[in-house]
Amino acid sequence: MIHTLESAARDLFLSGAARTVAGRIIGIVGFFILTRIAIRIGVRTVHRLLNSPAVKMDERRRGTLTSLLDNVVRYTLYFIYFLIFLELCNFHVQTLLAGAGLAGLVVGLGAQSLIKDVLTGLFILFEDQYGVGDYVKINNFTGTVDSIGLRVTRIRAWTGEIEIIPNGKIQQVTNYSRNNSLAVVDVGVRSDADLQQAMAVMESVMRDVASESEDVVGPVQVLGVQAITQTEVTLRATAECRPMNQFGVERLCRLRIKEAFDRAGIPLASSQREI
Amino acid sequence: MIHTLESAARDLFLSGAARTVAGRIIGIVGFFILTRIAIRIGVRTVHRLLNSPAVKMDERRRGTLTSLLDNVVRYTLYFIYFLIFLELCNFHVQTLLAGAGLAGLVVGLGAQSLIKDVLTGLFILFEDQYGVGDYVKINNFTGTVDSIGLRVTRIRAWTGEIEIIPNGKIQQVTNYSRNNSLAVVDVGVRSDADLQQAMAVMESVMRDVASESEDVVGPVQVLGVQAITQTEVTLRATAECRPMNQFGVERLCRLRIKEAFDRAGIPLASSQREI
Amino acid sequence: MIHTLESAARDLFLSGAARTVAGRIIGIVGFFILTRIAIRIGVRTVHRLLNSPAVKMDERRRGTLTSLLDNVVRYTLYFIYFLIFLELCNFHVQTLLAGAGLAGLVVGLGAQSLIKDVLTGLFILFEDQYGVGDYVKINNFTGTVDSIGLRVTRIRAWTGEIEIIPNGKIQQVTNYSRNNSLAVVDVGVRSDADLQQAMAVMESVMRDVASESEDVVGPVQVLGVQAITQTEVTLRATAECRPMNQFGVERLCRLRIKEAFDRAGIPLASSQREI
Amino acid sequence: MIHTLESAARDLFLSGAARTVAGRIIGIVGFFILTRIAIRIGVRTVHRLLNSPAVKMDERRRGTLTSLLDNVVRYTLYFIYFLIFLELCNFHVQTLLAGAGLAGLVVGLGAQSLIKDVLTGLFILFEDQYGVGDYVKINNFTGTVDSIGLRVTRIRAWTGEIEIIPNGKIQQVTNYSRNNSLAVVDVGVRSDADLQQAMAVMESVMRDVASESEDVVGPVQVLGVQAITQTEVTLRATAECRPMNQFGVERLCRLRIKEAFDRAGIPLASSQREI
Amino acid sequence: MIHTLESAARDLFLSGAARTVAGRIIGIVGFFILTRIAIRIGVRTVHRLLNSPAVKMDERRRGTLTSLLDNVVRYTLYFIYFLIFLELCNFHVQTLLAGAGLAGLVVGLGAQSLIKDVLTGLFILFEDQYGVGDYVKINNFTGTVDSIGLRVTRIRAWTGEIEIIPNGKIQQVTNYSRNNSLAVVDVGVRSDADLQQAMAVMESVMRDVASESEDVVGPVQVLGVQAITQTEVTLRATAECRPMNQFGVERLCRLRIKEAFDRAGIPLASSQREI
Amino acid sequence: MIHTLESAARDLFLSGAARTVAGRIIGIVGFFILTRIAIRIGVRTVHRLLNSPAVKMDERRRGTLTSLLDNVVRYTLYFIYFLIFLELCNFHVQTLLAGAGLAGLVVGLGAQSLIKDVLTGLFILFEDQYGVGDYVKINNFTGTVDSIGLRVTRIRAWTGEIEIIPNGKIQQVTNYSRNNSLAVVDVGVRSDADLQQAMAVMESVMRDVASESEDVVGPVQVLGVQAITQTEVTLRATAECRPMNQFGVERLCRLRIKEAFDRAGIPLASSQREI
Amino acid sequence: MIHTLESAARDLFLSGAARTVAGRIIGIVGFFILTRIAIRIGVRTVHRLLNSPAVKMDERRRGTLTSLLDNVVRYTLYFIYFLIFLELCNFHVQTLLAGAGLAGLVVGLGAQSLIKDVLTGLFILFEDQYGVGDYVKINNFTGTVDSIGLRVTRIRAWTGEIEIIPNGKIQQVTNYSRNNSLAVVDVGVRSDADLQQAMAVMESVMRDVASESEDVVGPVQVLGVQAITQTEVTLRATAECRPMNQFGVERLCRLRIKEAFDRAGIPLASSQREI
Q: Which Pfam families match (chains A, B, C, D, E, F, G) (predicted)?
């Protein structure tokens, strides 16, 4: 299909009209418009195909594939346009960059990081490292995957900004959406608090939260004395939550524990000391 | 067009006059002046074309294209001038750098980062990573995109300075102008504050701000107890705002919450403690 | 076997049908489906073989091998599919990348990090650096090894997220599952505490914990005064535990020591000072 | 011109005298003196030409061009001297470095960073990233550009020291002299201060400063509550100033606001607390 | 010997049976089993040889050599197995990677870090940088050397975990087991302490510890006032100890000095201040 | 001259005596002694020439040239010695490193950083980045330039140690000896101080110091309120001093301002607060 | 000599016995023993020669040369042994690594850092950057140079551990043993102290120390007010000491100044404040 399209384009634009400068410019502009139309049609076809009920896929994979194929269609057509464009302009550049070795060197240098981006992108998809909609951390940036392209991945932070990372620059991927997440609640009590009582209160609060909140799907646990620092004794409790719902659970637990401690008279490290 | 221009220049300057040293110098200077004029004409044509009402484009894309085409016209003419200049001077350099391999190596080394800059620049445009006027963060520098060139991107910080970054040095792009931004307001209250009351006051203040300010376009939320540190209990609220208007909203919320807390007698962590 | 499979595929798809564009597309799609089926069959065979009672292996090695062979089967079939795909499409790409040297350069550049990943992966397995289920620290990320592939290692943190690290990016491996772990308990007492008494109390608490907890498998030791800082005197005790159970033991020790110190009137550094 | 000069030099020094060692040394020394004289004449000519009233240029561009052409003249003559010197000495070095490949490699390695420096320098000039006299920040060093050479840029810090940076080592350029600068004044007040009153006082002070100081060229603004920390409430005001005059304006504003707050009884965060 | 083994294997597996796919698979599996047996025999022989009383070596060198030869035997047999395996499979790979240059490139890229690891490993052994059992610090990781292989070094931390470092990644080695170690005891006293008395008490305590503990093998010294900070005056004493026993000596000294200072009424910086 | 010397050496040592091993060893040793004598004579000649009253140079340039020519003489003779040495030994090395390509690669790799060092050194001298005796900062090390060699620069810190930096490792040079230095005196006063009075006192003190000290050569200035922090209000004054004398001036100013503030009753931030 | 030794070895071991595998093994082991004996003899000869009274050298240079020649003898013999070893084993490796280009690549890659180490080591010696016994700082590690080898430098820290640094990894060298060291004593006094009196007391103490201690060889100086921070006024004094004796002098000065200040009633910043 690609071949046919390109041949037609070449026959059309390079045969007669291309002999004059004006003809070439018209050709370039014309083909530019044709390319844009082709891109739109291609992209729409991809969307329609993938979102038709005939294709059985879960939502996450459908999003990933749509964003990828969009990309493939776009870049393929850009590439063809670029080749036609080069041929239409190609009356002087070649004589400048005559040496094939030099041209090869130049292309190689330029293409190097591009190839690395695309290859890493393919591996991300084949190995299913993350899909559109996953909550991930890539190179110190955390957010929801917006789209996975052949060359770049876009992530949307919870505060709204879009981060664009070339795939080849990705060093480590942390995917938060694969397993249940663990809510970890650390509470610092004063050194004169009764630890056994505090842990008992914590456990009962955690159980209440677990029975009440739908986000908690696993067991809750009061792990015990996490640290004894110079100013406080830190107690830790955990609860298994649905992926990425641990932040809300942690906030709820903190509120409830604070209130329960106040009721039970267990002094928080931040509570007013009597001097 | 480029071809014609260059041929004419070459015929004019290299045929007769170029045989004497003086003639060459005149040629170089003359062609330098011609180049400057050509650049002005080219740049004006680009501006007129893109800003004519016939071209239907949104403002952002128009700015980006204008700044880019400016660049393309400039560099193409610089390049032609450089070639003519080399040919006019070219009576001794060649014998020095006789070995083609060495010359290729030298050119390749020099051109390497240049090509990388241009390629990255093209991808920024094709992938629409950011446009002129977007508020972005590139390599730890934050500001409004001033212009996108083939080789460098210029960013204007809110305090006025211009940052110039070669495109090939861009590692990660954060674009704040694509989605609504989230205003995040953290307020630390004293450990003896009534958290339920504090959260209720916060929520009512946030609602007031949302109904009052046009910058708030989405729902407001009081998330809850973000952290319990040794000196305070941190409460967090959020509000969805129009892109890049969150800073003003956050400032307004802080002012209102402070005043509402003072009225309601909820002690801030920074409030005077009675000892 | 691979040879046979590929020959058959090639005979089938490239002979007749491949002469038309439509035929090629059908061939690509058809072979894509065949590849998926082949992968499923291959993966299942691997699982059945390795998990059959006839194969005598400890659980850890069985998990590692299963995850590895899965990978080998998958990538081999992907590779064959890719070759067939290239041959089916291969009517224009070749003329573009005509120069073999350039193609070699491009392939070499792309394949470089891939080969490094696979080689490092093989060494991890041959040298038994870690297996599936080990608790490891790789490049500042700590967790349980989820799977070891030819190209990437997946680690599951204790809070649930999955970290994906290309094998070639692994710099140093710390394996916590090979030896017994040492629980280290540092407790800071006030400067006016009786150190001999405090160390005696600590020792008796540590012995109680050791006799009580099954996780403590080696001797307990009170090492002595670890540091004298401006605000406290730090005492240190250790206990040898079963691998990765030291955290629970440390928590238990901290709780018991705190309670024993309170009973014995030994002031902790965090205890309320009388002014 | 260069050619003529070099040919004459070569004829003179290499023909007869160069046959003896003494003659060569005399030749080297003599040509060394000639080179120095030529440099002086060249540099003076450049200065006279560029500073003649006939050349219409603004001061900044004139400084930049003078410093650059100085450089070009110097290095060209150094280079010619070096070639003559090599030919005069060249009776043994060549036999040592016989292999042309090795020599090419060595030259390439040595010339690599030199070429990168010069190319980056040219782009700095072509793209007008900064000129002589601009206040810039390059690689964590801030100051006024003293000179832009082909190879290095010299910057003078406000405390007087000269920083010398090879152009090829320049990563990011921040130019403070292109736009108006924004004076940003942050003042921390105590938690018990009346914020509305404080902001009103600030605004009136800022207006006074703006009407009084010639350095303020744009509107002043009291942005509001920038942050609520554990010890203070930070208020922020801004004023648009002429480039690089914001530091003086900020100092003036701080003094005036401090005095106005003292008069109005608004407590600064640093004010003595009554206990 | 290696040659004989491999020839036999090749004759056996490649002659007749290898003509069929099934025969090849049997050959691969069979040779895999043979390789495992050969490794076991080789490793046992190495152990028996090196640990026989006939070989006169100190314990440290014996451990190092055993761990090394183990490695050499293993990798040599793995390598032979890999070659046989390639020959048995080698009916399609070759046609894919036809270009010898490309294959060389790929092998070179892959082998690069492997060769660096082995070379560095050899230098570690030849230069006796560390042996099995030494307490070392390599790249920010401290512990006892567990084994030195051709490719990796394994270190066991005092808390039990195993660190695996490729030899080629080793930057700097710090060996604590070569010389006596110096116990350094810093004690901070209050500003109103009598320094001469404090130093005298310290000296007498250090002498007692030295005469009492077998770990102290060199002279003890009270160096004097190490620092005067805003909160304390730091005194320093040292004692030469047997390698790696300084930690215990330091703890003992701290305990004794604390007790002696309490007896003598010299106030520690951490002691309760009377206000 | 070099040629003659080397030819004589070669004739002498390689003709007859070199045929036996003993003769070669004698030759190597003998030539070693000759080289040392030649170096001494060469170095002395350089010193005498450059320090003779006939040569008109300022002291700084004389020091730089002496240290450089020393170096050139030394390395040239080392190099000749090395070549002779190689020829005398050269009966086996060549057969080992038979392949010229490999030898070239090895030499190139080894010579790479050496060439970079020498080239950077030449540019430091040509561009007069610093001379012997200048006070500079190179790569985070500050001190007086002790000597500039072809390969390394030596710097003497004010506390006496010598820092040796290969020229090729120099990233940025800060030269403090080119311009007058600016003494910057920051003094923090308490929030309740009268700022106008404090600034007036500061100004009068600065004027006194300027009229009294010969090191102050430019105007003194009280810039104003540099910062308002939570604990103090910082005032800044400056004075232009002779290069590198600003430290003494700053110390003097601090002493005088402290005394003047005490006399005038202006409270320093560090002054005792009455509670 | 080397040639003779190797020829003999080759004649002996490769002629007859080497035809059988057993003979080869015997040859390898036998030559291994011979090599060890040769190393011992060579090393002893070097020591005897360099330490004989006939050789006139200062102690430092003698130590450096002994440690270097030891190294040269050792590595030369290792290298010869390695070559013989290769020839004895060399019946299969060659056929594997048939391509000379690949072998060259592999050797070059492996040898690269080795050559860099040796070249840097030679420059350290030629340029006399440091010698055995010097107190130096190399790459953040400080200590006394223990030995300088062709490939690595060993440093002994003052606490006893040995640091081993490959010469090629050395970035910057700081040598403390070349010049006198400067003892720098900073003392912080309270804001209400009489600075003139404090400086006078300091000066008299410094003079006493200088007249009393043999380590002080240059003038003492009280520089003045180094800094005025929020909590103290820092005074600085210096004394020129013999190399590396400044630490003892500093400690003595601190002790004496503390005592003198206590006698004179000058309050240290760390002294108890009366509230």
A: MS_channel_1st, MS_channel_2nd, MS_channel_3rd
Q: Per-residue confidence at D248, pLDDT binned at 50, 70, 90?
A: very high
By Cβ distance, the residue of D182, D228, D236 closest to B268 is D228
Predicted confidence (pLDDT) per residue in F20-72, tens digit: 666 667 777 777 788 888 888 888 887 887 777 766 667 777 778 788 778 77
Query: What percentage of chain A carries pLDDT values higher than 90?
Result: 31
Q: Which pLDDT does position D77 carry in this prediction?
A: 77
Contact at CB, G179 and F187, closer than 8 angstroms: no
User: If contacts are CB pairs under 8 Å, which of residues 243-272 in chain F contact chain G?
Assistant: 248, 251-252, 254-255, 258-259, 268-272
Question: The domain spanning residue E62 has which CATH number?
Answer: 1.10.287.1260
Predicted local distance difference test score (pLDDT) of residue F22: 67
Cβ pair G172:F139 closer than 8 A: yes
Which of these, G164, C11, G221, lies nearest to E173 by C-alpha position? G164
The domain that holds G191 is classified in CATH as 3.30.70.100
Of A179, A204, A221, A219, which Cα lies nearest the Cα of A257?
Answer: A204
Provide the number of structural domains found in chain B: 3
Three-state secondary structure readout of chain A: CHHHHHHHHHHHHHCCHHHCHHHHHHHHHHHHHHHHHHHHHHHHHHHHHHHCCCCCCCHHHHHHHHHHHHHHHHHHHHHHHHHHHHHHHCCCHHHHCCCHHHHHHHHHHHHHHHHHHHHHHHHHHHCCCCCCCCEEEECCEEEEEEEECCCEEEEECCCCCEEEEEHHHCCCEEECCCCCEEEEEEEEECCCCCHHHHHHHHHHHHHHHHHHCCCEEEEEEEEEEEEECCCCEEEEEEEEECCCCHHHHHHHHHHHHHHHHHHHCCCECCCCCCC
> For residue F59, what pLDDT is reported?
75
Mean pLDDT of D181-198: 90
* Amino acid at residue number G31: F
The minimal CB distance from E233 to the residues G110, G164, G258 is found for G258
Residues B91 and B117 in one domain: no
Q: Do the Cβ atoms of F227 and D254 come within 8 Å?
A: yes
| CB–CB contact B192 A271 (8 Å) | yes
Residue B105 in domain: no
Range of the domain at G259: 181-264
Q: Dihedral of CA A205/A208/A214/A220: which sign?
A: positive
Whether E141 contacts chain C with CB within 8 A = yes
Q: How far apart are CA E120 and CA E123, in angstroms?
A: 5
- Residue A100, pLDDT score: 43
| ipTM score for this prediction | 0.75
For chain D, which chains pass the contact test of at least 3 CB pairs under 8 Å? B, F
Min mean pLDDT across C186-190, D73-77, E198-202 is at D73-77
Q: 3-state SS of chain F: helix, strand, coil percent to 5? A: 55, 20, 25
State percent of chain C over pLDDT 70: 76
pTM of this prediction?
A: 0.80
Give me the residue label for tokens 């209160």. Answer: A201
Local structure of residue F268 (DSSP, 8 states): B
Question: Which of A2-16, B194-208, E45-59, E152-166 is the least confident region?
Answer: A2-16
Cβ contacts of residue F227 below 8 Å, gap of 6+?
Answer: D254, F233, F234
- Residues 151-170, chain D, touching B (beta carbon < 8 A): none
Does the pLDDT value for residue A98 go beyond 50?
Answer: no
Residue A154 to residue A164: CA distance in whole angstroms = 5
Q: How confident is the model at residue A121 (pLDDT cuts 50, 70, 90)?
A: confident
Say if CB A239 and CB A211 are below 8 A apart. no
Give domain status of residue B134, yes or no: yes
Domain C-terminal end among F98, F131, F158: F98
**Paired strand residues for A225:** A235
Report how far residue B58's alpha carbon sits from residue F117's, in angstroms, rounded to the nearest whole number. Answer: 54
